[in-house]
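pasting for the record
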Amino acid sequence: MKRRPKEFFSLTAVLIIAAMLLSACGQSKPPQTVTIPLASNPTTGYSWQVSQSKELFTVESSYSSDETEALSVGAGGTETFVLTPKEPGTCEVTFSYVRPWEETEEPDEQGVYTFKVSRSLQVEMLSAVGYSSDFPIGTPSPEIK
């Protein structure tokens, strides 16, 4: 049985390239997260409601009260939202400050962010609009990391 050097080297080259591609796949970046802090005071009955034009993100939130010298009833704080992308695409994420039981046409405060998520789940903010001029912290800039 004769060995064919060209076929052997061709097969070896294919195996090396396949191994390199497989090892590169394992080195992809982890999904980025988007963190948005919003002024909030749940003692007033208001809360932030989040909606997405396309369900691209998993949304988690936490609340921390503002530090005050004495414990103050009715003191406000910050509700922090963390958005983790699940799939690629573009969507608007809307934050509305409302009393959920009230039937109002317009929320007291609202901000709309447009995000683009790449195939590798990296996030880019395309725009941020909304929030009135008297909103305590202006239009919050999301932190993308």
